[in-house]
Design brief:
Layout lengths: L24 E2 L5 E8 L2 E8 L4 E5 L7 E2 L6 E2 L5 E6 L2 E6 L5 E3 L21 H7 L8 E3 L5 E8 L6 E6 L9 E5 L11 E8 L4 E4 L9 H8 L4 E3 L4 E7 L5 E8 L5 E8 L17 E2 L5 E6 L6 E6 L5 E4 L7 E8 L4 E6 L12 E6 L6 E2 L6 E2 L17 E2 L6 E2 L5 E7 L6 E6 L4 E7 L3 H5 L6 E6 L6 E7 L10 E6 L25 H6 L3 E6 L8 H5 L10 H14 L3 E11 L1 H12 L4 E7 L12 H7 L6 H10 L11 E7 L8 H12 L5 E5 L10 H15 L2 H4 L2
Parallel strand pairs: 36-37, 36-38, 38-39, 39-40, 40-41
Antiparallel strand pairs: 1-2, 2-3, 3-4, 5-29, 6-7, 7-8, 8-9, 10-11, 11-14, 12-13, 14-15, 16-17, 17-18, 18-19, 20-21, 21-22, 22-23, 24-25, 25-26, 26-27, 28-31, 30-31, 31-32, 32-33, 34-35, 35-37
Length: 720
């Protein structure tokens, strides 16, 4: 099929579906919500009464999105006060009269309040170009607007590292450089952290008596995103701490008046502790409002489950969920009725383990109750970084699209779909009883364009025992009598799982959303979650860690070999691979470890070596802390793709973004240099004004497709 420029636009297929991925907005204090319904005549504002399911449509409505400050002023919940940084210290401003009070006086250069490991702040280029102020990190208010907890990290011992250079600037001037005090895995130390709690009524400040190395790994990001639990009645709070490398996490109780810190729970793991199977979601922790009970997530059984503890002494009261299935997200706790609402995998043997279902279970024990019976993925999301410091400067905070529970806890909206079934939206009571159908997505135009759903697949991993799940995407003009080359679209990172499982995943926003455009160019595109990815057992995720094949390329080879043996139209002699970020590293590594199998690759923004990768958290929880021992340091050399460049046997295109703040351009030059020194022919592409999402640039999509067409398609072989 001859592709035109429209067909390779990322949203080409998504735009052919009406109401593909709706956001529902609950109205505070009411069991009502609103959304914007798409039709061929435009967009209509719709309000729904959850009690009856009745819908009221209007062509005009005012947006009620929450505007959020992108910089210094951190507002209290009651909006009477705000905290800001002046110099290296914190100040308080009373909103009604504008009076200002100094809160701290011990901040200093590179050890000031708001100075934190910047590894997850990826907005410095955007802030410079929009002339936005620097955000104030690490300041959290108590719900009653009385107390502040504030963080500063000691970055004085770390060098200012050249991070990003803008070679293309808007005024046509010279290059603009960005430096950061950025800790790397190669550093012998991680930043010390200091926490203080401030009573804004008395202006009394107390240092929290916690280990200075207690805010490492994801514990830092949990804190910065507000994943702490306040108990105003007893003047206490609970926060998560972790060691460097993330092998030890703890929940700590802090006395707000004295600063005394007590470890309540401790969780250890050989490689890393998971408090949610997806690193980018909130930790599955909850402390009741009276500070008496704690819900805690643990993989100690080999599968992620929920446990109930006494907060006073840290003793286990009961296990709330159990079995060979995984809890995904803790969504809501109804303390009055003592019910816990969470998403988890199916409990049915043989079911798709990646589909999310909504359950509830009593804090007093008993079997979990399934609330969403349809065999599909029920899209409840619990993103850690939404509206927080990682994307500071976006300006608007709004609910994520998909399912959600009402503020009252009486109702929930259920958005569910599969790769074959477009989203359905229904309203249910939290007992599971159906109230009303809200609407269905309309994919008729998509089907009218010749699109057909991908084929869901289940294959065995390289151990010939473990089931792997994924999809195959074919060209819209597919002819089973022909032989097609194969592209492995991979994202093998252990943070989550990424093969499409919903209608939305394959069309927009997912890690593999553009597969149809690649298939239409004359390929069979395979996407599979091999061992090493999340949402399965702990053993499944950790199989390849600490080995040379750290992201499990062997499973991808085994999957494609099985599929090709059953499908004569797949040409096992012409297999390519592509991926971005961890997928960029993984796709190149697959070519180097399996040089005879993968003939062509496109590796986008892949880290060159993890000693220089962005932030200690992103790599050390998977690969270990290199400063721990010579053996640990040596493992990073084993993982480096630079060590294996002489093995390259096929054609590879290496793509990087010039203003990428996640995998800076230094990595591109390290990779290029290694191949040049090995006298290996490679193709290189730097997009000067693109960031980490460079793989979604229309130019890069076109170049990537063309690269596979030029080097993997054989017109003679395609004749069968």
């Amino acid at each position: 099929m001859q592709l035109d420029s429209q067909c390779i636009q990322p949203e080409f297929f998504a735009k052919k579906v009406l109401n593909l991925d709706l956001t529902f907005n609950w109205i505070d204090g009411q069991d009502r919500f609103y959304f914007w319904r798409e039709s061929r005549n435009g967009t209509v504002y719709v309000e729904v009464d959850a009690n009856s399911g009745s819908q009221f449509a209007s062509s005009e409505a005012c947006s009620t999105a929450i505007e959020q400050s992108c910089a210094y002023l951190v507002e209290s919940p009651n909006r009477w006060s705000c905290v800001f940084r002046r110099g290296d210290d914190l100040w308080l401003r009373r909103v009604p009269d504008g009076r200002e009070f100094r809160l701290t006086d011990d901040g200093e250069l590179d050890f000031g309040y708001g100075d934190v490991d910047p590894s997850y702040d990826r907005r410095s280029v955007v802030r410079r170009r929009t002339r936005s102020s620097e955000p104030l990190f690490g300041v959290q208010w108590s719900a009653d607007s009385r107390f502040i907890i504030a963080l500063r990290q000691d970055l004085r011992g770390f060098p200012s590292r050249l991070f990003v250079t803008e070679y293309v600037v808007e005024d046509g001037g010279y290059a603009h450089t960005h430096f950061r005090k950025l800790p790397l895995a190669r550093d012998g130390a991680a930043p010390d952290s200091r926490l203080v709690v401030i009573d804004t009524e008395t202006m009394c400040k107390k240092e929290i008596l916690v280990d200075k190395q207690a805010l490492n790994d994801l514990a830092l990001h949990y804190f910065l995103c507000g994943a702490i639990w306040w108990n105003a009645r007893s003047k206490s709070l609970f926060l998560v701490t972790a060691n460097r490398g993330g092998t030890r996490f703890a929940l700590n109780a802090v006395d707000l008046l004295t600063g005394y810190c007590r470890e309540v729970l401790v969780e250890r793991a050989q490689i890393n502790v998971r408090l949610n199977p997806l690193d980018y979601s909130h930790p599955n922790i909850y402390v009741t409002s009276d500070g008496a009970e704690i819900i805690w997530y643990s993989e100690r059984s080999g599968y992620g489950h929920l446990y109930l503890y006494e907060a006073a002494n840290g003793e286990l009261k009961r296990q709330l969920t159990c079995g060979e299935w995984v809890i995904f997200d803790l969504l809501r706790v109804d303390e009055t009725r003592r019910l816990v609402y969470f998403t988890g995998a199916t409990k049915v043997t043989g079911g798709n383990p990646y589909y999310r279902y909504l359950y509830r279970v009593s804090l007093d024990g008993g079997e979990p109750e399934l609330l969403t019976p349809e065999i599909a993925d029920h899209k409840f999301s619990n993103p850690l970084f939404r509206g927080s410091y990682r994307f500071a400067g976006d300006g608007v905070t709004k609910p994520p699209p998909g399912s959600s529970i009402s503020p009252s806890g009486r109702y929930f909206i259920d958005s569910y779909s599969t790769t074959e079934q477009p989203p359905e939206y229904v309203l249910r009571r939290t007992s599971g009883e159906l109230v009303a159908k809200i609407l269905s997505s309309d994919a008729s135009d998509l089907y009218g364009a010749g699109w057909r759903p991908p084929e869901r697949i289940v294959v065995k991993s390289s151990d010939q025992t473990t089931d792997l799940y994924g999809v195959i995407t074919r060209p819209r003009n597919f002819n089973p009598a022909l032989k097609y080359p194969v592209i492995d679209a991979m994202y093998p990172g252990p943070q989550g799982s990424y093969a499409p499982r919903t209608f939305v995943d394959q069309l927009s926003f997912g890690a593999m959303y553009c597969t149809q455009s690649f298939a239409d160019a004359g390929f069979i595109v395979v996407a599979v979650d091999g061992r090493g990815t999340a949402h399965r057992s702990r053993v499944f995720r950790e199989t390849f860690l600490k080995t040379e094949d750290v992201f499990g390329a062997a499973d991808h080879v085994a999957a494609i070999q099985q599929l090709a043996s059953q499908r004569s139209y797949m040409d096992i002699g012409r297999v390519g691979v592509m991926g971005q970020s961890f997928g960029g590293y993984g796709s190149l590594r697959a070519m180097l470890l399996h040089a005879e199998f993968f003939k062509v690759g496109v590796s986008t923004t892949g880290p060159a070596g993890y000693l220089d990768a962005e932030g200690q958290t992103n790599v050390e929880r998977f690969f270990g802390v290199p400063a721990d021992s010579a053996e640990a340091r040596g493992h990073y050399d084993v993982l480096s793709n630079l060590r294996l460049v002489s093995r390259l046997n096929g054609r590879v295109l290496l793509v990087y973004g010039g203003i990428d703040e996640s995998v800076p351009l230094k990595h591109a030059f390290m990779v290029f240099d290694a191949f040049i020194k090995a006298d290996k022919d490679i193709d290189m592409l730097i997009v000067p004004d693109s960031a980490h999402t460079v793989s979604k640039d229309l130019y890069v999509i076109r170049r990537t497709i063309k690269y596979f067409v030029d080097h993997l398609v054989d017109p003679i072989a395609q004749q069968g």
